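Pilot study result, target chain (326 residues):
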Amino acid sequence: MVKVNNIFGDKYSGKVGNAGVFASWKGRQYRRSYVKPANPNTPAQQAVRGSFANAVDKWHDFNALQKQSYRPLTSGQVMSGFNLFVSRWQKMTIGERASYVEPYTGFKQYGVGPMSVVKNVNIVQDQKEYAALDKPIVIGQSGFTQGTGNLAPVAIVDVRRGRIDFLADITGLVTFNYESGGETIKDEVVGNDISSGDVYHTEKFPITYKSSTLEDDGTVVPAIELDIVSGKAYVTGDEEFTEGGTINYRTYNPVQNVKYELYKAQTQFNTFRGYSDVNGITQIAQTAEDSTRDGRIEHSEYNSIVKANISAEDSAKDEYIALIAL
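Predicted structure:
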């Protein structure tokens, strides 16, 4: 190592070709010989690099809500939610990675009292779009009753939530095509041999209205897109159909600014805090690996609701919550 005295007062740093490297130590400049960094690329190093790359890819597959679920867990630590997830992933065994469950996501809907009775919209021959539905619509409470017409949709597609509720059994490979956030998603696999009553949540949401098609073994099958906020419905698929049949749904009177808080069970460690919007909706995600939760729902004009020791899945599930005025 050679000390460097610079009469001009300039400071040097970094590599100069292969001649040497300038740096400073305790305010003194020095120059040392350049040594090419070693890169033995051992199996252990390859495993670490592969693990890191895999963690980054996994993170990029998360939707915005899932990424946010890791942020509160960094409280008191100098790291981001991304850093925390990568750190956890690299410490997992191969078996733990294989069984890893992505953060649960859901929509909470808050309204005054019980949801409404079932409401209906009649289908008109070859009319695909219906914009006269009351709103907001309760998630998971919509369906279709076939009448004298030949329209038989196999599913209700909730475009805001990114949720598909199946109305009929389907034999074969079911895939879904749609747009979300300017991205086109092709052939997202829903599953094989779907049963009536099954629910599937899309990888991306919200879904662009009037952009989706549901396919069974590559053949488009009819479905109904539903926008729970704008009160619109759209029949997907290219087939003509006759009138007869009704779209069924329930609504509620939304409550804004309902606070929903979650904590790791029996602690004060907060994992979520959010407020409902003008439609009474709070979007939420919770990590699967951070124990059970205690929850509290509050609003100055309504009775509080306390939930104790609930699973991460239940704490974030789609749910309508009826509030009772004080």
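One observation from the pilot: DSSP finds five helices and 24 strands in the chain. A full batch analysis is planned for the follow-on phase.
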